[in-house]
Amino acid sequence: MLTFYSEEHRLHHGRCELIDGELKPCFEMPARADQVLARVRQRRLGEVREPADFGLAPLLRSHTDDYLAFLKGAWARWSAAGNSADLLPFTWPARSLRGVRPESLHGQLGYYSFDAGAPITAGTWQAVYGAAQVALSGQQAIADGATSAFALCRPPGHHAGADLMGGYCYLNNAAIAAQAFLDQGCARVAILDVDYHHGNGTQSIFYRRDDVLFTSIHGDPRAEFPFFLGYTDETGEGAGEGHNFNLPLPAGSAWDVWSAALEAACRQIERYAPDVLVVSLGVDTFKDDPISQFRLDSPDYLRMGERIARLGAPTLFVMEGGYAVAEIGVNAVNVLEGFQGAF
Ligand code: OKP
Ligand code: ZN
Q: Where is the signal peptide (predicted)?
């Protein structure tokens, strides 16, 4: 399996996030991608390639131009005002406030975010642009005939909406790749989001459409981030009705419970008969993940990959979460090896 990877991810390294009332070092850190890359090489998964540059056009298919302009220009505005600390939002257009787009940087930061978990740093734009190109390069490899590819994206993307950042995410790498498949002639794309957290951004981007089936297995949003989306009654709207499937699971879920949900998600995907599959590959379902509450063990990821392979679709794996840094490489690459071993 080809892996796509860019060193540019390193340019995004947020300093702090708010955890239980304290500012702690960001869990979403460069070492995550380093560990995954090291494991790809150790296991000789296949060639590792630099991404090509597809420009902004494919990003504009899933994100608004005003949001991309904001994201691209925010750091320059911030540093021109004499700042060097990470740019973090502190106020949002919540219920009973107006959804206006203010002039000020901080007003716009609140307008374009849903939490304070996505700091903008000097190199954030370059890193997130690079991650999107990594996803698009994996997409291109499959469009050119590969049966699978691994987009080793960092930072992750599945919480990012069309004009919304949050949950460590800025650009929705999986959505951008899915849209590129459609734009190149695919009729139906399925997205399987196995990250511990609900992929609220991906869901919202495709919620009213029937050309993308979105399925997600995640911590129950009644108790878990992102709290405000990811419930079972979110089944799609308009043309998208019946094309969104959320499978929330309780804290403590292990492979027996999780694999039953995977089976249900796979049956929906089989029924949809997609041309291609995009997997939002988060491994924060791991038992020792520091911010998550499922109990998958490393060998379970091999089984996960095997089941995904049995769907029989060309498959693009897009890296999302996973914060047990020492084990992230083994767990992520186990999914890929399980997938390959199934043939
Ligand atoms: C991103 B991805 C814990 C705060 C958690 C956000 C988690 C984002 C996960 N007190 N904040 O889906 O792995
Ligand atoms: Zn996650």
A: none
Q: Residue 249 C-alpha to ligand 2 middle, in angstroms?
A: 14
pLDDT at 343: 65
Closest residue to atom 9 of ligand 1, CA basis: 167
H runs (alpha helix) in 144-191 = 173-183
Among the atoms of ligand 1, which is closest to the Cα of residue 291?
Answer: 3
Cα 106-109-115 angle, rounded to 5 deg: 120
Please indicate, yes or no, whether the overall pTM of this predicted structure exceeds 0.95. Answer: yes
**Which run of H or of E encompasses 141?**
helix 124-143
**Cβ atoms of 90 and 116 closer than 8 Å:** yes
Contact status, residue 141 vs residue 1, Cβ threshold 8 Å: no
Is 159 annotated as catalytic? yes
Interface ipTM:
0.96
pLDDT for 342: 78
Has residue 271 got a pLDDT over 70?
Answer: yes
CATH class of 2-54+122-341: alpha beta
Examine the pLDDT at 52 and tell me if it is beyond 90: yes
Mean pLDDT score, 247-271 = 98
Q: Which of 26, 154, 159, when mutated, tests ligand 1's pocket best, judged by the most ligand atoms within 8 Å of its CB?
A: 159
Cβ–ligand 1 contact at 117 (below 6 Å): yes
Angle at 275 between CA 270 and CA 281, to 5 degrees: 75
The CA distance from 129 to 259, in Å, is: 34
Q: Which atom of ligand 1 sits closest to the CA of residue 19? A: 10
Residue given tokens 């007003």 in the structure block: 107
Integer Cα distance of 124 and 130 in angstroms: 10
